[in-house]
Amino acid sequence: MLNYRNTMEIKSAEFIKGIIGTNNILSDHIPSVAFVGRSNVGKSSVINSLVLRKNLVKPSARAGKTKEINFFLINKQFYFVDLPGVGYALMKATSAEKLRKLILWYLTGGEAKIDLVILIVDSGIKPMPHDKEMISVLREKNINFVVVANKIDRLNQTERAHNLKKIESHLGAPIIPYSARTKEGRDVLWEEINKVL
Ligand SMILES: Nc1nc2c(ncn2[C@@H]2O[C@H](COP(=O)(O)OP(=O)(O)OP(=O)(O)O)[C@@H](O)[C@H]2O)c(=O)[nH]1
Ligand SMILES: [Mg+2]
After folding, report:
1. Does 64 fall in a domain?
2. 120-132: per-residue pLDDT in tens?
3. Are strands 78-82 and 32-36 parallel, antiparallel or unpaired?
4. Lesser CB count within 10 Å: N end or C end of the chain?
5. Is the pTM value of this prediction over 0.85?
6. Residue list, ligand 1 pocket, CB within 6 Å
């Protein structure tokens, strides 16, 4: 039986602000959990699955839609921070580079206090250079992180075992199999989040 002891009861979840640079919100001392990953891996969907709201964060109809750093206040206690994705093939190189810089500034600029980064990868494909870059930045800056392999519902048992092993060895970090659709992995991820709150 699944054990949901460690999930959190969501009493409130509200969008607070989208920022594209320095803002007071970065120094308000509210704990924050940031969601990063390439465009379209399901960052927004994972947030929605955690808070059990279908549309707190609007999942993209088109890839590359999230262009700001969006802050959501959960239970009036901590922020979920939805970051834009990079690496979307059809995005103009200049916009992609701008987003990449924005993300790196947020993660490493020292203004924000980030308690946990949830790096989301697509369980259906091999991790991309951007995922590896992200891991090395997180390690270098000593930022607490976990890796989530999303969209696991799309794989059969054979693909699942094969891909998870491959992603794990590629990134050199343990990963949590996850599905924003079926909510597999939700209790495990909450357990990780609860550790830092
Ligand atoms: N099958 C399946 N589809 C998913 C899952 N999570 C997200 N999706 C779909 O993947 C697409 C992208 O999801 P988003 O949550 O918008 O992804 P994102 O990473 O926030 O995208 P950007 O903001 O553009 O970077 C949407 O069509 C989602 O419905 C999942 O666990 N399983
Ligand atoms: Mg998004």
Report:
1. yes
2. 999 998 777 889 9
3. parallel
4. N
5. yes
6. 37, 39-45, 59-60, 63-66, 84-85, 150-151, 153-154, 179-181
